[in-house]
Amino acid sequence: MSLKRKNYLTISKSGQHEIVIKKSRFICSFTRTKTVEEAQAFIAKISKKYHDANHNTYAYTIGLNDDQVKASDNGEPSGTAGIPELKALQLMKFKNVTAVVTRYFGGTKLGAGGLIRAYSNSITEAAQNIGVVKCIMQQRIEFSIPYNRLDEVNHYLEESKILIANQAYTTDVTIQIFLDLEQIPQVEEDLTNLLSGKVEFKKLDQRFNEIPITDFNFHEQ
């Protein structure tokens, strides 16, 4: 898998958001799901919660390459609910999420075009309201330095906006940092030069770290 595919976007947390269009209520319920079973369980939970609604439509995408996707109109005209929801998720490049959009009919028909816009906007506005994070695959790197080099190393890490996982103070200072995979060669070279070659790096585990996105443009994805 390429480095680029190691990173993905998703919602910051589970949540709900409601919009009202011509007295019809559209309640979008969002959660993260990594398996089809988790997605199905969430859909069942929301459908039970809103069992008196006219429709509980849904869409989910599982896997970093959209390995499993599914959409349902749940009684709305074909192609007016689930597919627009799924397309909205994919346009925002979201991964491992499930959205259920519940509709309470307000008495005024919206037409096919109106329904498509309503269900799509319900997804987008809910994501905007809940928040978006970028999940970045990072490598935990460990190295040790003398106490008298700590200030300059910390200054470099702060200036470079590198996440410090841990600092342990024993005979020396042992520092653990998280780096994007493509950052590793440059940062190791910088620290080696800063410390005049007197440093050894140890690669530990890799994990996804979440970076909040505050400037996400929902209209240009």
Task: Explain how this protein is built.
- It is built from 5 helices and 10 strands; from the N terminus they run E-E-E-H-E-E-H-E-H-E-H-E-E-H-E.
- The protein has helices at 36-49, 82-91, 111-130, 150-159, 184-194; strands spanning 8-11, 15-21, 24-32, 55-62, 68-72, 97-104, 132-145, 163-169, 173-180, 202-213.
- A hairpin with a 5-residue loop joins strand 4 (55-62) and strand 5 (68-72).
What is the tally of beta strands?
10
The low-confidence parts are none
CA distance, first residue to last residue: 22 Å
Give the overall pLDDT as a whole number.
93
Order of helices and strands: EEEHEEHEHEHEEHE
Structural shape: elongated
Q: Whole-number radius of gyration?
A: 23 Å
Q: What can be said about this structure in brief?
A:
With 221 residues, this protein is of the alpha+beta class. It has 5 helices and 10 strands, in the order βββαββαβαβαββαβ.
